[in-house]
Amino acid sequence: MTINKQKKILEKIIDNALKNAIEEIAICGELFSEESLRYLVMNELSKEKIFGSFPNDNSSSCKLVFEYAYSKNKRSIGTYRPDIASLKVDDTGNVENINPLVIELKITDWATKDIVKCREYINPNKGKLFFNLAAVVVAPTPKKRNLAILKTAERKRIQSLKKSNNDDLRILFAWIDHQKNQPELFWIS
Predict the structure, then answer these.
(1) SS3 136
(2) Which helix (H) or strand (E) holds 187?
(3) 7-16, 66-75, 92-101: which range is least confident on average?
(4) Could you tell me the pTM of the whole model?
(5) How many CB atoms lie within 10 A of CB 86?
(6) How far apart are CA 188 and CA 94, in angstroms?
(7) For 51, which of 38, 95, 113, 131 is 20 to 30 Å away at the CA?
(8) Are strands 130-138 and 79-80 parallel, antiparallel or unpaired?
(9) pLDDT (tens digit, 9 = 90+) per residue, 32-51?
(10) Does residue 17 contact residue 43 with C-beta atoms inside 8 Å?
(11) Segment holding 21, helix H or strand E
(12) How many other CB atoms are there within 10 angstroms of residue 168's CB atom?
């Protein structure tokens, strides 16, 4: 499957997950958590199956995992733990070097650090493995909406990373625009 087809499917997955998050936040308010968001995203990923399904089975070479330990650099010690990763696993159970997808989730604050992490995840020269696509998904609860996600300067800065031709862009940035009460998604560099 081409990368552009995978991007379209990922957009659909994240859009559906955020629409479900809007409903959950309306019902649960401040009880909505990152775990809730993780469940919603994992559920939508599992429906499409191209990045794997959860719970995992032996029918797919892609495995969906939570909090996979990702080495930051080939030479230094230290790890990130992306919220969700789709890993290609060979017949012997070893994770391959090139993997389909990694996702960072946020409900509390601005995701600038997560964007930086995603840039490292998709860079083949950074870690011991890398990912074809990455996504940063932000779904703040009502009390957290007034944080930087709605600050005009920061939002404009992130949107300036968006380019009209998104064929070579591999990080999907998605959040709930509470003024419109709908998901907003775009690809960034």
Answers:
(1) strand
(2) strand 182-188
(3) 66-75
(4) 0.87
(5) 23
(6) 31
(7) 113
(8) unpaired
(9) 999 999 999 999 999 998 99
(10) yes
(11) helix 3-28
(12) 9
